[in-house]
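Subject: for your reference before the review

Hello V.,

The reviewers asked for a structural picture of the protein, and I figured it would be easier to keep everything in one thread rather than splitting it across files. Below is the amino acid sequence we used in the manuscript, unchanged from the supplementary table.
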Amino acid sequence: MDIRMLVSQHNRYRSSCINLIASENIMSKTALKTLASDLAGRYAFRPEFYGGTKYARMIWDMCEELACTVFKSEYSNITPLSGHLALMMALYSVVPRGGEVACIPTDEAGYPGLAADKIPEALGFKVLSLPYADHMVDAEAAVELVSRIRPQAIVLGASLILYPQPVREMAEIAHEYGGRLIYDGSHVLGLIAGGHFQDPLREGADILLGSTHKSFFGPQGGVIAVNDRELARRIEDNTLHKFVDNIHLNRVAALAVAFEEMRRFGREYAERVISNAKSLAEGLSKEGLRVFKTRRGFTESHQVYLPMQADEGAETRDRLEKSRIIVDMAVRMGTNEVSRKGMTGREMHLIASLVKRVLEGEDVTSETLRLVRRYKRLRYTLDG
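And here is what came back from the structure prediction:
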């Protein structure tokens, strides 16, 4: 068995599954073809050092222009190789060593990279937990805390994000004393790009950043969007040879394809993703499963959450995979990929029924495969 065979087997296996992982998506054939181009082994810098970069530089510029169009921003930076690095680059640019950053607590599904011994330790700042309950920031209590402590930056973003964040309230208080509001939209970036969920930059965020491969359907990587020229310059100056040395030009080209697809089809796609998430949550609840819900409903994003302890979540993940239904051990279910494959609310209720039957001990593999075969063609693409 060689690597080519393993890749082929992986492709066949995953294309025969219903993927409900909230942090994954599927790229179009056009984007994948671009990712596998000659650009994969090339370099380009600013200012330029290498020859042979005429077209690579045009691709880089085009990708940033498309990012600005999609996010309605004045400036963009597509050099981060991940959402994690995008966050590090933003924080490094606005928080001095010894400073303080307020964020959603990591033990409440806040981003694990902001745990005290992760990015804060690496960049030398302290972390302050925002008041948080029912997977929402308590805006009133958070404003009181931030106005008293005055952290250099507030980061709004989470690994489990069901509802919009109080961007306007937090940005207003931060700007009163010269702080910055960073919106980590890693999970919801595709919904924001599609004009749904919320609009952080218009609501007062100084920086919008995130991963480009979750609800956004590009290659794995990151992006930063801002409206402030000086802030954009500072982030740009802190990029090459601090956080990135090769921006992976093939990734940039594939990301440009995804931005163009999002520009053309993003609103329809994001609307479908959110609608499907609500249908899936309703279906799971009607099947008698415990689905997280507040007065705002089950979800306003791409995610549906089934609260479980870690051992129960791991068992649920493994049981579902035996019937070709893929989730993570946190049992955050996402509708990114199934939406891009054309599924609607009707299929979400069917999937909910399949999940319930699996958890009752039934093998539904044949029905999973039958459903998958009906939805082979990808939507919202530049594919011919």
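For the response letter, the relevant points are probably these. DSSP finds 15 helices and 13 strands in the chain. The CA atoms of residues 215 and 336 lie 6 Å apart.

Happy to draft the paragraph if you're swamped.

O.
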